[in-house]
Each structure stands twice: as structure tokens, then as C-alpha cells.
Give the backbone structure.
Amino acid sequence: MTFSEGGQFEGGRVRKGGGRRGAVGAGVGGGAALVIALLYMVLTGNSPADILGTTTDSGGGEQGYIGECTAEQANTDPECRLSAAVDSLDVYWAETLPQQSGVEYEMPEVVSFTDAVDTGCGSATSATGPFYCPADTTVYEDLSFYDQLSSQFGAEGGPLAEMYVTAHEFGHHIENQLGLFERADRSGTGPESDSVRIELMADCLAGMWAGNAATTEDPDTGVPFLEPISQAQLEQALSAAAAVGDDNIQRRSGGDVNPEAFSHGSSEQRVRWFSIGYEGGTIQDCNALDARTL
Ligand SMILES: [Zn+2]
């Protein structure tokens, strides 16, 4: 999964958020306030914003948007990779979602955060892992999480898994747009639960994107986003993705963020549903929510 030579990504799509002086603790400033805020969050399950007042967010060094990137940068720099992957996902779903479901694609917000961030689903920290918040239709990713990922899975495996995770979170956005979040009962767990079905469908939708990424052209440059994915790369991405399943990566901070249910299906199921999408499956084929067998 390598971005094609000649690719150029305009940037301005992925907002940088959080940080020590970002959304959480802004206006109070200083590490002590953040510690208090996080303690408060852990102890009460409420958002630190409740005690810190509204966030003003001035002077946070990490604020702004991820800027322009070349394909070369997207292949080496995690911020650029996220930004370029999001561009690719936008183009793919803007075409595919209306085609297959009649629903117009609305771009989700994407926030790359550090340390801690306030969201429509409550406060999150780096320990939460990447997630999608349906309430504010935003994908949140903490790039320091990916440092762990690449050190754990090696330089080559890391980027593949990163894009897989981003595509999985976009899958949840697509589910949300299709009204499936409202229909699913995500409170339950277990192998037949809606929670598992929602996760497997997101894997399948991620597979759809991955299977088409090499033929989806960037309208700005006419260059296909990604080079074709080799079998070895695919296996590596899948094994990494299975290994960093949401169960592992979403260590709850004790806050009120509950972006995902805890049960996400077995690794075997996840790989299989990804493959259904990857091998030419449609949104209908990916509909694990209504599937008789998982
Ligand atoms: Zn998920």
C-alpha cells in the first residue's frame, strides 16, 4: 500500500486537535489543570470541560490543519499519510456511496489529536485509540498511537495498518450515513451481537476502499492514489489489523467516550469480512448487520 509517484495532496482536510493546551484544559493552561481534568474524568466519567468551562483554545501550538504533501511524504510521514488516505477515502466514497445506496456522501471531520481531546462523544485521550464519534460525525486519530503500531509491527507493516484503521473508521461513518447506527443495538456483546456486526461491516467497507484504491484516481492530479497491493502486503495489513483489533487498541480511559463496543468479532471473521469487500464486494455484500451468518 504505497502512494503512487506523482501524487500530490492539497491538505487542509485533517484538523490537528488536542494537545496540552488544546481543547482539553484550554483557558486554564498548564499541566496541572490537565491532570486535574483527567482525574476528574476518570473519577466521574464526565468531561473535564464541565469543570474547566468552555474551551477557548488559543495559542495551542498543535492547532491548524495538516498541509500539502507529496506522495513521497505520504509514504514516510504519518501526518501526510493520514491526510492522503483521507483524500483517497473521500474520493472513493463520494462516488461509491451514492452509486450503491443513493445516499450522498458527506465528508466526516477528521481530527488528528495529541494527548487529549474533547469530542461530541465526550473526552478522549491517546489511550482511547482511533475512533469514530457518530454524534459529531468525526474520525479521531492519535498519531502517537501509530508510533506504537509501527514499532510493534515494523516500518512496513505500520503504514498499512494505519490506513486500514483509518478506512475502518470511515466505514463507521458510512454506516452512520446509512442509518445503521440508529438501527443497531450496540449495547450488547457476543458473537451474534449488533456490535460485532457493525465492526465486521466497517472492516468490509475498509476492504472495499482498499480493493479500489489503486484504480481510484485523484481528480486533482489524475494519478491513482495507491499502487496495487501485493498479496504479501495484503496479508501483512490484515494480520496487523487483526492483531490491533479494537479490543486491543481501545483501552478505555475511564472517561465517557464510548465510540465502539467492546466486542469486535474474531480475527478470522475480521479478515474474512475485509476480504469480502476487498474482492469486489458491494455495500450490500458488506451488510453484516443483516447477514444470516457472520
Ligand atoms: Zn470499529
Notes: Residues 168, 172, 199, 202, 246, 260 surround zinc ion (CB under 6 Å). Confidence is low (pLDDT under 50) at residues 21-62, 246-262. Residues 8-290 form one domain.
